[in-house]
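hey so u asked for the seq, here:
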Amino acid sequence: MNGEDGPDGTGGEEGRTGTALELLVHGVGGTTPAEMLDDPRTVRVTGDHIAAVFRRTEDADAESRPKDYRGRPVPEAYVWCNLTSGNGTRALWLLLLPFMVVNLAHWMRPTAHGRTRTVRLYGLLVRLAGLTLTVLLVAAACEVALDLVAWQCAGTRVCAERHSWLGFLSPDMSDGGWWSTPGRRLALAAVVPAALTGLLWYLSLRTWRAYESQPPTDREPGPEEGPGHTALGRPGFWYGRRLVARLRAAHTAAALLTVAAAVGAPAARFDRRAGGPALLDTLGWVLEAALAAGAVAVVAVVCRRGRSENRLDRELDEHVVRPLPLAALALLVLALLYGGWARPEWTSAGRLPGDMTFGGITLVQGLLVLALAVVAHVIHRSLPDARVAMRGLGGPAVAMLACALGGVMSGGVCQRVSDWLDGTGTSIDGPPVLLTWHASVIPPLLVVVLLLCAALARHTWRLARVERDAVEGDHPGEAGDPGRTRRIALTRALATLTDRAPLLVALTSAATLLLGAGALVGALATGRVPGEAARGTYAVVHGAAQTAQALGSWLIGLGFILFVTWGRRAYKDPSARRTIGILWDVGTFWPRAAHPFAPPCYAERAVPDLTWRMATWTRATGGRLVISGHSQGSVLAASAAWQLEPSARKRVALLTYGSPLERLYGRWFPAHFGPAALGSLHEEVDCWRNLYRRTDPIGGPMRLPGDSGPAVDRGPLKDPLTYGRTELHPLPAPILGHSDYQADPAFAEERQRLLARLRPDVPAPRHTGRPAPVPPADGGSGDC
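ran it, structure tokens below
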């Protein structure tokens, strides 16, 4: 259906029926089309098995029967739950959590106007932090495969005898077999991190094609509209093909170069000994120089300008996308040949020099986070906002947590593999000392987190006691029920924990930074694991160090198992998904602007879907529409509305309920969902009404300034609907919280008000002061 033809295939104004449309968008966890449309008979009218628009069967051909829909809209449901849920194997995406978190930090920058260079520097620092996470992951894989397995265990007779599958790599058990030399063992083990790199590259490419390759509507960029302008309305915002492809090439090359360095560096160091062969020594220097040049090229590619959002950029940097990974692959092959060259005198002893590698990565990450904090502070000071989380430092704090997650996961895998290979703890040296220190700081960090949680619990309990009076005041004249009052008050108090999240993130990230710095200093200063480094000190200190070291290793293993188990349950169990799904959906909502190996962005499919649907409907029928979004669906609805042409946006009414637009997105992502952006959206759409409850931990008011606040936000809905038993509700009404907003009569009232505005003629005037057709029960403004 194009913009010139009517729904019956005829051109011109005859096909423009003026029929209204009600487009429903579900939230976290998803639902079925039958539940959304309140009819068991539904049919898919457009879309595929991943995301589609459904109608009731009787409405399938509504465009051809415009007279049947005079005075009522055509209801449709956009179902996108398959973009973020599926079978249990998707839980493996949780292993990419550090990449997703650092990508979030990119979008958390404060609002800025006229500071283009500072904003670019912010994005550059986050991209560099993302690059260090890729190097860290691959370095951990090299540590496991090359150092622990091929170098230490296979080179030690006791360990190799315990693991017979390593017999062909052991010089003692294979009688000097071809694969038993150190260089060839390392070359063979390099297949593991190289395969991991290939898997990440393949998943990034495949998920981009499946989720993010849908181009938005191709339109000319509008003028920059001052403080209220948001990048979400730019034509190329939801199409980051060029940047993702360039970053994918750079990160793939960085990973391959890391593997090449892990194989070639030990051989080059051996060849530099006195009396070593001059040819191999020269080749070692040439190889290391080539690896250094490759690293410089990778950093240069990452430092290039970020996203192109002002236009729909379909081009690719052909000189980078293919040549850079292929050149890195060629260097890896050369490193494998160089490392595998016969060196009869070479034997493996001790551990490979991993402390320098992991220590350098940790130091660079800490410096990047500190620099990012300075830049974020400068940006925030230029346009301060009291509602912004952590005074604009949310991005640096989240980047710190991403680096900590990467370090803990990498160190945990190395520690657990070492414990498995060396059951006695005496046959091999184990992982680098710094990784053991990283594991040892987990118990004190958990103590800090538990103390914070205890403080929040105490604050919540005190708030719940205060809320009891408010609950009783909301239901005057009814017989009191202390148990029910306590439950309602506690639910309200627990819902406020969302607003305390910035404090928890700030203190946790600060403790992580300090403990990580202490671990780095302790490892470099002593060169020993914490238990040995504390030997000779006070008995309490020594015992605490040994306990932290042992407990940290087991906590990592337990956390890894729980992590994957919860992830599988969240993908397979809708109730569990609704519990933790909002955090995952927030993380995968944003395009991959800082890390190409992060989980795919579902919004690069969902937002163009909704935009195309709304734009083609208004062009083809001349009608207007209400887009109704719950929870995360309201974020998709608002993002799609920003993508419309201004003329089409004026024909859209917006109904949001349980919406995190201001409470989560406005506070944590102020540059894109700040008060100016939300205020401009209110002014640009035909009408916007928002519903929320005090018991809702996710949704909240939009808090727009001035008259715009009451025009958008209806007063908080009652929850539960009735306090005690009544003639209409003889059984106790449930506390709904974030779910089932449609059960409240206020929902039908606001929905009817918006639908009453849908006329084929010119939209009704705004802010006229005339009374609304249906006065709101809570006394709020009925005008938009």
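The mean pLDDT is 85. The chain has 27 helices and seven strands.
lmk if thats what u needed
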